[in-house]
C-alpha cells in the first residue's frame, strides 16, 4: 500500500498548466505516492500528455461523460489506495 494518494481532476486544462502540475508532483522528494489523474472532459482528452510521463505512480482515467467536480472528486476518493 502506498502512503499518500495525490488526486488531480482535469477538465479542459491548458496543456502547459497540466504539464507543470504533473512535473511538480513527480519532482517531490517524498516518493511513496500514487498520482490519480481523472479527465472529466472526454471530448478534449489530455491522455497523450499524461502518458508521455511514463511514470508507474500515475493512474490515469477518462470519464465516459462529464461528472462535474464533486462527482470526479468522489470517484477519485473511491479509487485512492493510499493511507492518506
Terminal CA distance: 10 Å
| Low-pLDDT residue intervals, each spanning 5 or more residues | none
Q: What percentage of residues falls in helices of 4 or more residues?
A: 25-40%
Q: What structural category characterises the helix and strand content?
A: alpha/beta
Number of helices: 3
Largest sheet: 3 strands, parallel
Describe this structure in words.
It is a single chain. This protein has 84 residues and is of the alpha/beta class. The chain is 35% helix and 23% strand. A 3-stranded parallel beta sheet has the order 1-2-3. The N and C termini lie close together (10 Å). The model has no long low-confidence stretch (mean pLDDT 95).
Key features?
3 helices; alpha/beta; three-stranded parallel beta sheet; 84 residues
SSE blueprint:
Blueprint: E1 4-10, H1 15-26, E2 33-39, H2 47-51, E3 58-62, H3 68-79
Summarize the structure.
The protein has helices spanning 15-26, 47-51, 68-79, and strands at 4-10, 33-39, 58-62. It has 84 residues and is α/β, with parallel strands linked by helices.
Amino acid at each position: 500500500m502506498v502512503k499518500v494518494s495525490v488526486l488531480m481532476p482535469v477538465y479542459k486544462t491548458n496543456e502547459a498548466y497540466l504539464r507543470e502540475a504533473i512535473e511538480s508532483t513527480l519532482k517531490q522528494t517524498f516518493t511513496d505516492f500514487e498520482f490519480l489523474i481523472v479527465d472529466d472532459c472526454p471530448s478534449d482528452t489530455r491522455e497523450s500528455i499524461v502518458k508521455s510521463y511514463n511514470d508507474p505512480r500515475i493512474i490515469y482515467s477518462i470519464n465516459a461523460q462529464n461528472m462535474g467536480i464533486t462527482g470526479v472528486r468522489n470517484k477519485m476518493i473511491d479509487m485512492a489506495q493510499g493511507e492518506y
